[in-house]
Amino acid sequence: MSLIYFIKNISFTTILLVFLNFGGEVEAQIIQGMSLERLSRIDPVMQGYVDLKKIAGNVVYITRNGHPVYHKAFGLRDVASNDEMQHNDLFRIASQSKAITSVGIMMLQEQGELLINHPVGKYLPEYMETSVAENDENGGYKIVPAKRQITIRDLLTHTAGVSYGQGPAAQLWKKSGIYGWYTADRGEPIRETVRRIASLPQAAHPGEKFVYGYNTDILGAVIEVVSGKPLDQFLKDSILDPLHMYDTHFYVPDYKKDRVATVYSLKGEKINLAENPGQMEGQGHVGQGHYINGPRISFAGGAGLVSTTQNYGTFLQMILNGGELNGTRILSRKSIELMTQDHLGNIPYSSGKGFGLGFEIITNLGDFGQIGSQGAYGWGGAYNSTYWIDPIENIIFVYLTQLIPDGGLDEENKLRALIYQAIVD
């Protein structure tokens, strides 16, 4: 192994531990109020999943007070070729795309181009009037006009009634070819898909239920219409390039394809290679997808991006900083404040949690029932990735892997406990 290869791939935590072992005192093994010895407890747990063949590989990235305290890759990027996972490998982040698109909407509000309380139909005319499928007393359903117009805020909070094709009229959605979160294989722009979504009966009336679905993909179409740019170009110009997130794409450039982690499925005791390019199963897509060799036409703001732990951590640091990073301001502090408040009110969601403008939020730590902080917020992706920001402890956590379905693994909650137990200040 060359010295250059070693330097490029050694983890941040390992460098610190090596330094401390050459003369550092026990007290010095603290970085940003976190114990390196206690953070190292992550290593055997993550490696254990790899050794048991529950996961091929993953990357864990943690910062505190704006400084990396842990960044380590485990296992293999690809089992067949025995390629080791690297810190800068690329992952399909699926619904982690939603936060970036939501920031794009808030930027347009700050530029005076829209208001989030405006009806979506102001920008996408087909949404001026929508319909809803309601169950009837005979076990079927009836289609009725929506009680009110869908607003941009409804889409940001997933209270528009827009599903991923589920609901009483699920068969109509399947017949239309719109079902599940995956769009990378589509030969039509997202604007056209969104136009067809408007013609289908939705799963609930606007403002009445939390319904997870194509909401953020519709927001992506709003961005395209309002900005006059394709969504990929808007995000590149407004967020990705200003934050130097040069490894975040809707479709992977050819020269980066060797860095894309392979997708696996855990349906039994051990992982198996997911199909290439993959297919729809249940409510979602299972497989490698069309992120390298696909049509490269559908820019899905709700689930289409590919990124790295450090790139995504950069985006989250901007959020935690109140909309600014290294002198570059993306949003105002007040917009971030609004995004990270619970907007659901009395709409049922999940015990101890609410939902803001693009983020799930811990509203009651006792009801949540896990170690953490009230007010922490985050989300995850279909390939078993996750992230969260804790503004009280000033911690950012990004976990990327490629596993769908995940077989009910509990590694994300274990990581949560392992991170918080390392705080010693």
How would you describe the overall organization of this protein?
With 425 residues, the protein is an alpha+beta fold. Among the domains are: 1-87 and 409-425, no CATH class; 99-236, 3-Layer(aba) Sandwich (Beta-lactamase). The chain is built from 14 helices and 20 strands. The strands form 7 sheets. An 8-stranded antiparallel β-sheet has the order 5-4-3-20-19-18-17-16, sandwiched between helices. A two-stranded antiparallel ribbon has the order 1-2. β16 (353-355) and β17 form a beta hairpin. α5 runs parallel beside α9 and α5 packs across α10. The longest helix is centred in the first third of the chain and has 14 residues, at 97-110. The chain is globular, with a radius of gyration of 22 Å. The model is unreliable at 1-9 and 17-27 (pLDDT under 50).
CATH superfamily of one domain: DD-peptidase/beta-lactamase superfamily
**Strand-residue fraction?**
15-25%
CATH architecture of one domain: 3-Layer(aba) Sandwich
The number of E-state strands comes to 20
Mean pLDDT: 94
Sequence of strands across the biggest β-sheet:
5-4-3-20-19-18-17-16
**CATH hierarchy, class of one domain:** Alpha Beta
Number of helices: 14
Bin the helical content.
25-40%
Assign an overall shape.
Answer: globular
Low-confidence stretches: 1-9, 17-27
The name CATH uses for the topology of one domain is Beta-lactamase
Rg to the nearest angstrom?
22 Å
The biggest beta sheet reads: 8 strands, antiparallel
Distance between the termini: 38 Å
Structural class by secondary-structure content: alpha+beta
